């Protein structure tokens, strides 16, 4: 539930709304229709209409300046959830947002902590995300910003067999190093709540102005997650066990970096390069950063300043409930009681 105070913004448009996190943001904001009017910007109206309720306005465009300006005119907030491989395109989107008089821009962060410029040596794609926030800083006299750091998407990962090395239906998982590395994960519904709350009152809108916002659902280890999955799968007295493939995070990261460096072409060709071997290398490296805290970018609950969960009034979630809901969604707890 949002605070009762009047919201400082009303009209919000989301770019990339049909991806992994976009629908959760649309739902969280559109469920408060008395507060927010939500729009999305997409290339395909038919795909979007099947995902969202009738109170969500759909703007169809080709990402030209003219099309974006038409969609952004009258909007208070632009939220970008476009893919990492399209990150540089946000500079154009930001310029149009400034031209349209938008008040706030949320860049497509929603992942590991990208705020430290020294971390680029670990993840060569980081400068592209860091460059967007740096660009926003040059515009912040006209357009404020908030960058949400969320770690991995736990509920989304569990629902997608094979994502981040977890395949629940086949009872297989990749475990990095000892499996005991603490790392941050956030359910996508929690991310939606956090974004909605940050825009809901003048005080929170001000507090989150030009800031990195750190949130999570849990700080967990891979071994804890596997134990919770097995506990729930065996609640009927069974003895299901995951088959574990152990991986060395430093070795995988080194190999992935070599692939990335070979295929990197520079910012102008970033989207073109983001396919084939480049994409595979990037995914492997991100997996190391999320699950094994490679480079120290995904254990931010221990950073100075800590999490924003309490300041935003986010609920304390339970890992057991998240796991159970994921297993039910996969149809793996059929016939169970309780």
Give your account of this protein's structure.
The protein has 13 helices and 13 strands. With 338 residues, the chain is α/β, with parallel strands linked by helices. The model is unreliable at 266-273 (pLDDT under 50). The protein starts with 10 loop residues before the first strand and ends in a 9-residue tail after the last helix. Strands 3-2-1-4-5-6-11 form a seven-stranded parallel sheet, with helices on both faces. A three-stranded mixed sheet has the order 7-10-12. Strands 8-9-13 form a three-stranded mixed sheet. The longest helix is centred in the C-terminal third of the chain and has 15 residues, at 249-263. α1 (22-30) packs across α7 (188-198) and α4 (90-100) packs parallel to α5 (126-139).
């Amino acid at each position: 539930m949002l605070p009762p105070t009047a919201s400082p913004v009303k009209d919000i448009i989301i770019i990339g709304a049909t991806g992994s996190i976009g629908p959760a943001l649309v739902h969280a904001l559109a469920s408060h229709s008395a507060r927010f009017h939500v729009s999305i910007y997409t290339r395909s109206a038919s795909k979007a209409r099947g995902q969202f309720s009738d109170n969500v306005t759909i703007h169809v465009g080709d990402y030209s300046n003219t099309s974006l300006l038409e969609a952004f005119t009258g909007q208070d907030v632009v939220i970008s959830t476009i893919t990492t491989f399209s990150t540089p395109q946000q500079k154009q989107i930001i310029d149009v947002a400034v031209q349209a008089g938008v008040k706030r821009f949320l860049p497509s962060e929603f992942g590991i902590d990208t705020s430290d410029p020294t971390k680029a040596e670990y993840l060569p794609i980081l400068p592209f995300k860091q460059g967007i926030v740096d660009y926003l800083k040059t515009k912040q006299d006209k357009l404020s910003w908030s960058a949400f750091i969320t770690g991995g998407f736990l509920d989304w990962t569990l629902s997608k067999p094979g994502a981040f090395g977890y395949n629940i239906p086949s009872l297989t998982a990749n475990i990095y190093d000892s499996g005991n590395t603490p790392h941050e994960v956030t359910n996508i519904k929690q991310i939606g709540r956090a974004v909605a709350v940050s825009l809901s009152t003048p005080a929170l809108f001000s507090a989150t102005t030009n800031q990195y916002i750190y949130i999570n659902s849990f700080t967990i280890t891979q071994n804890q997650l596997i134990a919770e999955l097995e506990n729930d799968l065996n609640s009927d007295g069974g003895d299901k066990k995951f088959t574990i493939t152990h991986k060395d995070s430093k070795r995988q990261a080194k190999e992935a970096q070599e692939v990335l460096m070979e295929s990197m072409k520079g910012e102008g060709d970033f989207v073109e390069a983001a396919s084939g071997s480049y994409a595979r290398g990037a995914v492997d490296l991100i997996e190391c950063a999320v699950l094994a805290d490679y480079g120290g970018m995904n254990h931010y609950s221990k950073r100075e300043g800590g999490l924003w969960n309490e300041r935003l009034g986010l609920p304390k979630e339970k890992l057991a409930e998240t796991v159970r809901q994921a297993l039910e969604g996969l149809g793996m707890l059929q016939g169970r009681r309780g």
